[in-house]
Amino acid sequence: MSARPPLALVVVSAEPARLRAALSLARAEVALGSAARVFLQGEAAALLRTPIGALQDAAWAAAGEPTLAQLLDDALDEGVAISLCQSGLAMAGVAADSLDSRIEITGPIAFLAAAGPDIRLLTL
User: Fold this and answer.
1) Cα(14)–Cα(29) distance, rounded to whole angstroms?
2) What number of other Cβ atoms are within 10 A of residue 4's Cβ?
3) Among 26, 56, 103, 121, which is disulfide-ready with 36 (CB 3.0 to 4.6 Å)?
């Protein structure tokens, strides 16, 4: 592991561009040898309602980039820890069993505790 402190990213609204940015930054951090976590807070939980996607997916794919669903899957495969606000999940009407089993349902206290005391925290 790198000497870089872990990166923790909080997505605070249901805008796919914010989740895309968080996932991209988290993957970059993992590529640098450090740990990264993404927490979807409140209404951002709706972004993981299946099917996962964004209006811009076709444009991203045409540019040679992954769709939002592919980006999420790649981040999970690469070891990015993704967690989702339990209250946001309920507000979005998303069933927990519809989520990828690699995604943790938690709250902000557990997210910050898991991230550790020496994190770099970004809110998107």
Assistant:
1) 23
2) 12
3) 26
